[in-house]
Amino acid sequence: MYGLGIVRGLGVTLKHFIDSYVDDFRWLGKRYTSREAFNVRQGVKGRGVFTVQYPEERLDIPERFRYIPFLLYEEGPNGEQVDRCTSCGICAKVCPPQCIWIERTNDPKTGRPIPAPKAFFIDIDICMNCGYCAEYCPFDAIKMDHDFEIASYDRTTRHIWNKDKLSKPVSYHAQIHPTDYAAEEAARAADEAKKAAKKAGAAKKAEESV
Amino acid sequence: MSATDELLNPDFPVPDELQSNIAITTIDKIYNWSRRSSMWPMMFGLACCAIEMICTAASRYDLSRFGMEVMRPSPRQSDLMIVSGTVTKKMVPQIVRLYNQMPEPKYVLSMGACATGGGPFKEGYNVVSGVDKYVPVDVYVPGCPPTPQALLFGLIAVQKKIDQQSILTVPWYQRGPSEAIPVPILGPDIIDPRQSDVIRVQAAKLATAATAVAELSGAAEA
Amino acid sequence: MTELTASPQGAATTAPDLTLDAHFPDAVQKDTRPGYSGYLVNADKLVEVATAIRDEMGYDYLSSVTGVDYMNDGKMEVVYHAYRTSGGPALALKVQTPRDNAVVPSLVSVYPGADFQEREAWDLLGIRFAGHPYLKRILMWEGFAGHPLRKDWREPYYEEDHKPFDTRWPGGDFHRSEENNPFGTNVQYPPDFSVDGWVPEAEDAIYAGAGALKESGNGHELKTDKLVVNLGPQHPSTHGVFRMVVSLNGETIDHLEPVMGYLHRNHEKIGERNTYLQNMPYTDRLDYICSMSNNHGYALAVEQLQKAKVPERAEYIRVLMVELTRICNHMWAIGFLLNDLGAFFTPALYAIKERELILDLFEATAGSRMMCNYMRFGGVYRDLPEKFKDGDTIDFLRELVNERLPRAIDDLDTYLTNNEIIRSRCIGVGVLPPDKAIAYSTAGPVLRASGVPYDVRRADPYSIYNRFDFDVAVRYNGDVYDRYLIRLDEMRQSVRICQQVVRDLPTIGGDIMSGKLQYQVRVPASEAYGRVENPKGELGYYVVSNGKANPWRYHIRAPSFINLTVLGELCKGHKVADVVGILGSIDIVLGETDR
Description:
The structure holds 3 protein chains of 3 kinds. Chain B is mainly α.
């Protein structure tokens, strides 16, 4: 019969329509308040409407999500900021669109470079969020941020991020990248244990030779 | 917060017994409220960001919650131009023309790094370093590409901007017609008619430099 | 109702004919440069040799045409890659010509699919093709100064020949590129340019190409004026900034001229400035719906140069990601084909819903929804996450590929396939016969919907595709409807592959990267052509290395671009409303078309 295909097709639409009400009944009014309901809707078993009511509701941001990079600093005992960055320049060299500018600090007395950046700029109008800087940084000093709410009314003054704007504490990194942070700390601890063992071994050897 | 709460003008308190019947507001407030609640974006995609724009319009992020679901392909019917993607020199005459064809009041949202400042393709010979070189931009959304939620944040920023406008100062109620932006010309490279003077000056500079070099070499030969 | 052919697996081992130089002793020599392969052909004998390889040796499919600027030798080289549609590796032909007067005979008469690619080589490299029917610029506009891919041509924001730029470190004095340009923006003009005397190219030139301004009517019939209609570049059904100049006789199409380049982002010029690694995120932005498979093709090409090995687990993850990408892409393509046919947005909404789920997985694994930048030379960036959406990732994957996606595909099938309106809009529209499909170098679903069972995954297997059990989907009518059906078939086959991967994945351990994480990738001086079966067709990367940190030549054989060569032919004689349907069934993405 002509038109049967259309009718059968509309059955699919009807199914989608009914699914959204089934979902409503299933959660009995808690549909928009319970986080559990939200997660089920967004997951592979979700049926019916799966709209994210941004800005009231937000999707979970996965740990590896990348937006604009940020620089890490350790918080010293007196609240001072110690940059992890040593201005080795690998991030600037690996950056595909070349949006990172680093100025190395020179020791005022000897004139030789010291491992800390004097200035650090990222032009977020060029940055392509590829994550290479974070991936190839040997010191875990630059990571990809999760903050995407950075729309602005003026780009000339607000889209070149300097070191102050980019710097965030290590605790922030630990908070948004818990797994990565744990792995990094474990690797660091293993590294240090190795170094200590080596030192101890060397000391022992020295003792023996004496 | 309900719409009425948003619209109420605190300068004119309404007696308690009348609160369910009367609301006092200002023209600006109600005018801006109605304008920002039915912004119609132009269905205008340039590149990668357009895909995220479509996803924003689709059921998961749902632009219609902001009164923006009516995406119009015709500039004559739209209020908001979302410049979603790399603006190339070959495309920019069309973009300027589209902007000129949009009726006032009109807003421009530059979505993504490319539209904002050239993005990763900035160094390319066919890429314009930001759409704001040609049309005025209201809100910039960085990111490559901005996620749908980031775009929604930018759209909310446009709405906030509208909320702050006043009917007395907005340009489209001023005397006289608004000026159209001159459409760029495709020359040996893109020519912005507003830049003609700069181009002439540079050409003259080059010419004097060339004659100077010629004279120098001539003198050397002599 | 699904018709599938057995895969021509045996054909894949056929070696290229090695006697071409014996065939034409005075016109063809073997390319003996170290790291190079194929044959050098004398320019004056090119058409003869091409006809011979097509008719006598069975290389009926011309995959890619491009040029290389060997500036230091004062030569331009045009590189052709031809295949047999029965399968097997490529035959590479090269023609050299002096750089200052680069002329090569056109192959359009032998392989019509060379048309746009030769125009591109003229546009970007300044190689003229003698005998080409319409040799005009294709990506840039007529009147643009210079041929940008020539090695001595410099863009306005030129800093250095290759990245990384010295100004970034250790000096690091921030500036915007605009500040160093006398015009304050991304422009430069030739020295003798005068803004006052400039006459831009008239639109009439484009219309003249469309045959629109020719005299119409023959004096016997009713004399009707031809009408030129511009579709695009701002049009909701052109899938981006694509323009078609259509000349109409009544409502019937006489001629259709595709105009492109509105999204020409200079991918290849930037790619030649980049290091090998830096190109990877740029490939995401080619076909921005399928970034994973773009990554895969580029990784294969460079791994071929490096002779790198990829660990087992990484291969499995790659295949999984690429096949999920194919499902994403076909979902999107079907949704938007229906949009173009007038079923505004509902099918697209259903398709996007499934796509979002896959994108969530990409976001959790690679870090971004669309621009995955996931593959590295010799592996992938990270392993799949352990946990995903409050559960184990592998459980999610099992549910996704065993339950959810098959059901979604069946839903789309019931929803659309037998719909009478769709059938009457699609069946018999835009028919592409198989011989024409091959001659015009179409690829992917467009080729297979015309009855040619050519799939790179089978014809020239790469990665670990030969381990999986899947069929090459084929349809035989070559119309819009078959191009729609074949996408459903292919999604089902992709689901099959994914099911096998997910079944095996937990048992495969080991690394996901071979070698150390290294940002300075060096490759020996040589050339490579890596190709993959992208959702849109055969995506090829032609990379020439001169041993430095940056590729000397980096060319992309873009399926969307080359599939468009046949668009004008397909639309001839149809009504104007069918154009968008035909275009939608070809499924282009402008990021890849214009690069």
